């Protein structure tokens, strides 16, 4: 049987770092990444046949569990019609109508192939309609890897110690202003000084790329207000939070309406899909209706649309998100009880169907500085001990965890039993 370690060695020959996305590389965890062979429901199965209760869910999309039978059936049904035509198809209209129905702030939407494309396009739209170059983002927020946004970014950029990537021209990076997340004063001061030069604010309404950091009361409202005053565009990057924090996303949960919304992950049901949308006034500036160019060979392809529509349709069951949030609450409370019992400095934070575990004495983590001050060594030991007991957490201290409706009470109990052992071993260390 070929082991993950052997497959990783082979992968490293022709793939940079052996992975097609850096966060998969288990950086700093002192063990090779696990190669998965298949997945179903709440479980991943590795190449050596081991089963894991999975809290990554392909980094968010698998909100009803892996290999959802309804999603697979929808893809199978379309498969024989062909994969992609490069022409308009009716199913793209079905997807657009569904998104506009589920997210009322979106009156018109353009499908793309990733979250990166969605945020990159939304930034271009904001710059195009305002005629301004400056954008405001927040330290530790990750919006994909387009040049303007790889400045003090989170997720893999942070995990691999390159929050501001080489290769981004200084002449471009200088237009990106980064502020501390949840810092209302910093936002007010920034807009007093340069508000009329700012094309947009782009924000993760719940930060999920420096672990899981919810917005403090007033933070999102302040962003909305300063954008109104200075005619800047407020962009909610809901690639991760969309359809996860609530059916209508973080904008519904926190009742703050952005001008543009970026989507990804869940919207594609596991297929490569992103989207950006907003008012007809804004979106009518997008080519071919307007002058701001944006395009994509496989954008809106019928197979990916079928997967996304099938998944989104399943989330509209009354009580789906309450039940998901309840599972997260049960897990987080159980982890906290076990950490306290073991005398380990650990806290959890959550928002709807996503959560985070921080090894820190702090009572709360509100921003990048506090997130990066947490105990990375403790995280490494906890992650490894959980993995060895068949629980797959995000392989980075700077990523959030994702619950699915496929996780059973038994899966959560298994997770808590594993955590009790892991935390106990850490106590003795
Ligand atoms: P993609 O281009 O990876 O589809 O989406 C980029 C993106 C944009 N905005 C937010 C809020 C995101 O979380 C992401 C991608 N998230 C990471 C994990 N935190 C994707 C995992 C990876 O990079 O492999």
Describe this structure in words.
The protein is α/β, with parallel strands linked by helices and 429 residues long. It has two domains: 4-67 and 318-428, Aspartate Aminotransferase, domain 1, CATH 3.90.1150; 69-314, Type I PLP-dependent aspartate aminotransferase-like (Major domain) (Aspartate Aminotransferase, domain 2, 3-Layer(aba) Sandwich), CATH 3.40.640.10. Helix content is 39%, strand content 14%. The chain has 15 helices and 14 strands. It has helices at 4-14, 69-79, 90-102, 115-130, 155-159, 170-173, 184-194, 219-230, 249-253, 280-283, 302-314, 320-342, 368-372, 376-388, 409-428, and strands at 36-40, 43-46, 51-54, 108-112, 134-138, 176-179, 198-203, 233-237, 260-263, 274-278, 347-351, 354-358, 391-392, 401-402. The strands form three sheets. Strands 4-10-9-8-7-5-6 form a seven-stranded mixed beta sheet, sandwiched between helices. Strands 1-2-3-13 form a four-stranded mixed beta sheet. A three-stranded antiparallel beta sheet has the order 11-12-14, with helices on one face. Strand 8 (233-237), helix 9 and strand 9 (260-263) form a beta-alpha-beta unit. Helix 3 (90-102) packs parallel to helix 11 and helix 7 runs parallel beside helix 8. The longest helix is centred in the C-terminal third of the chain and has 23 residues, at 320-342. The protein starts with a helix and ends with a helix. The mean pLDDT is 97. It binds ligand KE4. The site of ligand KE4 has 21 residues, from helix 4 and helix 5.
